[in-house]
Prior knowledge:
The structure is a homodimer.
Chain A: H1 8-26, E1 31-32, H2 34-41, H3 45-53, E2 59-60, E3 64-66, H4 67-77, E4 84-89, H5 93-100, H6 102-106, E5 109-116, E6 125-126, E7 129-133, H7 137-144, E8 148-151, H8 158-168, E9 172-176, E10 188-192, H9 194-209, H10 213-216
Parallel strand pairs in A: 4-5, 4-8, 5-7, 8-9, 9-10
Antiparallel strand pairs in A: 1-3, 2-3, 6-7
Chain A binds a DNA duplex through residues 5, 7, 9-10, 33-35, 44-47, 49-50, 52-53, 57-65.
Amino acid sequence: xxxxxxxxxxxxxxxxxxxxxxxxxxxxxxxxxxxxxxxxxxxxxxxxxxxxxxxxxxxxxxxxxxxxxxxxxxxxxxxxxxxxxxxxxxxxxxxxxxxxxxxxxxxxxxxxxxxxxxxxxxxxxxxxxxxxxxxxxxxxxxxxxxxxxxxxxxxxxxxxxxxxxxxxxxxxxxxxxxxxxxxxxxxxxxxxxxxxxxxxxxxxxxxxxxxxxxxxxxxxx
Amino acid sequence: xxxxxxxxxxxxxxxxxxxxxxxxxxxxxxxxxxxxxxxxxxxxxxxxxxxxxxxxxxxxxxxxxxxxxxxxxxxxxxxxxxxxxxxxxxxxxxxxxxxxxxxxxxxxxxxxxxxxxxxxxxxxxxxxxxxxxxxxxxxxxxxxxxxxxxxxxxxxxxxxxxxxxxxxxxxxxxxxxxxxxxxxxxxxxxxxxxxxxxxxxxxxxxxxxxxxxxxxxxxxx
DNA sequence: TCGCATTAGTGATAGTTTTCTCATAATCAT
DNA sequence: ATGATTATGAGAAAACTATCACTAATGCGA
Lengths: 221, 221
């Protein structure tokens, strides 16, 4: 049997589907069609079916999907059938904001500790957590079996934080900002870069107006 | 002449290239090859050249690119030759963190005002800004010629905030969280969903271990 | 000045992701 | 039961994106 690579876009959409479905379930909806999911989250119905088809057959022809079951299947696919302990490195503004972010807890992510190497921040309280010195990272990671680390330190320290997390046994990292981090093969890294997102906006604004395609793409010769 | 659509991934990479190049420039580097850029940001050299080729010819064969010139060209493409006034709606944890985020200012984004509809937050100071009631949004947008809005309100209020921003004349929105917003054709919207990013990590962790493909893809019948 | 090493630019190719189309299966009304 | 209707699942096609491989400049050293 051929093992299909699952596109990352599919994984992202599954996350979106599951949250849409949870809203439906809360409203008492028990059955849903790919068409309704598609409408609800802004993709095509075929896309919804294809995304699910990577993992099995979850629907009933002529009927649709059981909301409850589909939520369960997707959460299982995403590895969200249990909660995940998470550590956060970097107790600055962003780190503090993320600690307070309800969305994480709602999805089963449990921030168990926050670390920093700045003496001014160590000992400070964020939510119910005391900011710990990074030296204690290995110990906490081992104690809680933490596999996921969120890095919200300045760009220049990102690699250092990543190294420390990996050495402590963490094998999945979420980084912020433009830094490129190098990690061993077995470690998964994803990045959020807010400036990129804003620059996609300005590109679209600028492109539409200043560089009308018929000028901009004029071949040289 | 055929008008090429520029992949969004290309725009994202241009943003990354430009920041890498700015680091080089700071270190006194004057010339760079596609190979060196590729190494520096973790893509292929051909990718770098292709990305640039969407917009023109910026290099010299046998030599490479002038760091200074290439920075200038990319910033122009991204619409970053002038600063952009930005408004932020939602003075919660995330909004507060974004106000303090240096990365925005470094790239020419200037948060000119923060709004909220929560009386407990209105009047509060964030950085040098006083949180204003959303009623004043149209006025501020008009005054500063704001075209970009960042929405950091709870999911249930996202559409409302978007509507208000659009009605005030903003035509580019950055939203956070899972909400799907509906806007007129001419408005650009991009979204940052941090839960998705974490769930891509858990998918990878779970997938590798719990669902080995040879089990997971077993056909139903 | 000539030839060699280097590197951008580009058309062709390969690979990936999305969309399309239709056969299949289930429900419902008669 | 049976036919009409609905909606999934899946293979094919289309669209899109990335890589490859080659050509064309350019600089440098002999």
